[in-house]
Amino acid sequence: MKRYLILEDGSSFAGEGIGASIISTGELAIQTTNFGYQEALTDPTNAGKILVFTSPMIGNNGINAIDYESIDPSVRGIIANDIALNISDSENFEDLSSFLKEKKIPAIFKVDTRALVHRLMEEGTIKASIMDTNDEHAFDQIKALVLPKNKSAMVSTKNAYASPNVGKTVAVLDLGLKHSMLRALSLRKVNATVLPYNASPVDVENLRPEGIIISNGPGKPEEIIDKITPVLDQFYGKYPIWGIGLGFLVLSDYLDFGLVKLPQEFNGINYPVIEQNTNAIWQTSMNIDQLVLPDSIKMNMNREYFDLHSELNAGFWNIKDKIVATAFNPEGAPGSHDADEIFDYFLQMME
């Protein structure tokens, strides 16, 4: 079935349709992950995006039960060079086509993704639609579309829930939390309670936590900062606080650090960061469009991490103020486990 990716400037890319047969509109985003397409598809940070995979083929491994980052994906579609239509016969895996239909996600393959990625790198944010036609009416619809604000409100849990264990107690503010973060905490026997993005200081205090995590998520810090500020005002310096992804940006904004828009959003698993004290280089997973200007940090940090591409700050921690912040996802999923030790730093802070 022929389908079209229609860009807001009137251009289009033709390919073969797969997945849900619906019209879908969103923001195009490059996804550089060479593996782990299931994690990328189900990552709440990708809410509202149409993902353009740079990998030559996706789908050959199928979908399995343990690699979901959220049960109900919020991506608006996927574009790929090629999609494997058949996988090995196994009851433990579902083919990608069936998964996309089940989750109501449209997809197009046999698209010149190299040309599309070049366009995205030149133009930045582009609105687009997946449709069965490429007439002028479709272009008008895309131009009139207003991309949603405060996506964290869309993907955050509506009710608090527990991820119980027997160790330290942590309150997690869900701005678009990945399941793998809870898995990583559980492996370290952390007793986590997940709260909505707009939880009050009283909600947090009632848990008597020994630490607070502000999770990853979609959107921009200015859309969410007013909901997180009361919690930071109440508990900054009292409990260890760790911001990840969007949480990193929120914490940096709260501390009045200068946020710099990246020329191209980081969305993949191959972003190297260097640690200032040891010169250790980690390959990290990021899904973020801003980092911190190093000169804007007016406090002494025990450790800082810098993106090797831009030389901007991608993470820091300060023992005195009990803060940790990472633009990257330390648990990977997908990606390497180079940054796993960040979990240990945070747990030590709670001692």
From TrEMBL:
Class of enzymatic activity (EC top level): ligase
Keywords on record: Ligase
GO molecular function: carbamoyl-phosphate synthase (glutamine-hydrolyzing) activity
Its EC number(s): 6.3.5.5
PROSITE patterns cross-referenced by the UniProt entry: GATASE_TYPE_1 (PS51273)
Domain Carbamoyl-phosphate synthase small subunit N-terminal: 1-131
Keyword Ligase on entry: yes
Protein name, per record: Carbamoyl-phosphate synthase
